[in-house]
Specification:
about 190 residues; single chain; mainly alpha
């Protein structure tokens, strides 16, 4: 497995550093030229979609923090607030509703059913996603999994922004902006 990984890396680097890669290819016991080798192909069985989705979630969150950091000066702490589970359930339902393309009133009625206390939030999210249904992610993680992913990457985020990072669930947050958290798009507070 290690040899395969090294060989693949050499093949991928060869167009950019051909002389070094030819030397490395020779050192790994090959008698041909790396430039004559076939380009590596993806082995779909080795792909981990869960890891890819988690990585994309972290990248998107970091990008959101970066955009906000351009507006906020002098911050030393970043609070990342993950959306409550009811929003995820509503999100999955909303995805089905948006794909059907019903009238707004009909969609709103279906989504608010059993969520009357959250009617304004449902309305806001529905309006946003009906205008741009292609922006709905295919899947979202459960609340606890989002927290876990962010915790696993907390040190990376802290290093990236040279600031302390707190991660919390919307239901446990005392921040006014916590309600802005959406599945896959945490609310961010910088201070």
């Amino acid at each position: 497995v290690i040899n395969e990984a090294i060989e693949t890396q050499i093949k991928l680097m060869a167009p950019f550093t051909p002389h070094i890669c030819e030397e490395l290819w020779d050192e790994t016991g090959h008698e041909t030229l790396v430039s004559d080798e076939d380009w590596p192909e993806v082995d779909e069985d080795l792909r981990d979609r869960e890891v890819e989705r988690a990585q994309q979630f972290v990248e998107d969150t970091v990008e959101d923090i970066r955009e906000l950091s351009e507006i906020v000066d002098g911050y030393t702490r970043i609070k990342v607030i993950v959306a409550d589970e009811w929003k995820r359930e509503m999100f999955n339902e909303m995805k089905e509703v948006v794909e059907e393309r019903p009238e707004f009133g009909e969609a709103m009625g279906r989504l608010v059913s059993g969520r009357k206390e959250h009617a304004e939030m449902v309305k806001s999210m529905l309006q946003e996603y009906m205008e741009a249904p292609g922006e709905l992610p295919d899947e979202v993680f459960e609340t606890d999994r989002e927290v876990e992913i962010l915790m696993e990457n907390q040190e990376f985020i802290e290093d990236e922004f040279d600031a302390g990072v707190e991660i919390e669930k919307e239901s446990e947050s005392e921040e006014d902006k916590a309600s802005r958290a959406e599945p896959g798009k945490p609310a961010i507070v910088m201070y």
